[in-house]
Amino acid sequence: MKKPVIFDIGWNACINCGACIAVCPQPAGFVSDFDTIAVNTPCEIACMKCEDICPVSTISHLVVAAQENPHK
User: Fold this and answer.
1) Which InterPro entries does this UniProt record tie to the protein (predicted)?
2) Structural domains present in the chain
């Protein structure tokens, strides 16, 4: 199973083409205020289609760290 990721977009390079949203299998609400894929929101699917299709290669991601179980 893939680990969740959080996407980041280089806003100075983004051309707002909408390609990332077009290929994203997330529900329609997984969109930023700038009509790109959501940033600062964990993506459980982590398919990376948005990174692959970005024509200016400005989408990157960080793997979300596993939550510590405080009851261990």
Assistant:
1) 4Fe4S_Fe-S-bd (IPR017896), 4Fe4S_Fe_S_CS (IPR017900)
2) 1-64 (3.30.70.20)
Whole-model pTM: value is: 0.83
Annotate 45-66 with b (16+ C-beta within 10 A) or e (fewer).
ebeebbbeebeeebbebeeeee
Residue type, 27: P
Which distant-in-sequence residues (6+ apart) come within 8 Å of 72 by Cβ?
none
Chain-centroid distance, C-alpha 11: 14
Q: How many CB atoms neighbour CB 68 within 10 A?
A: 7
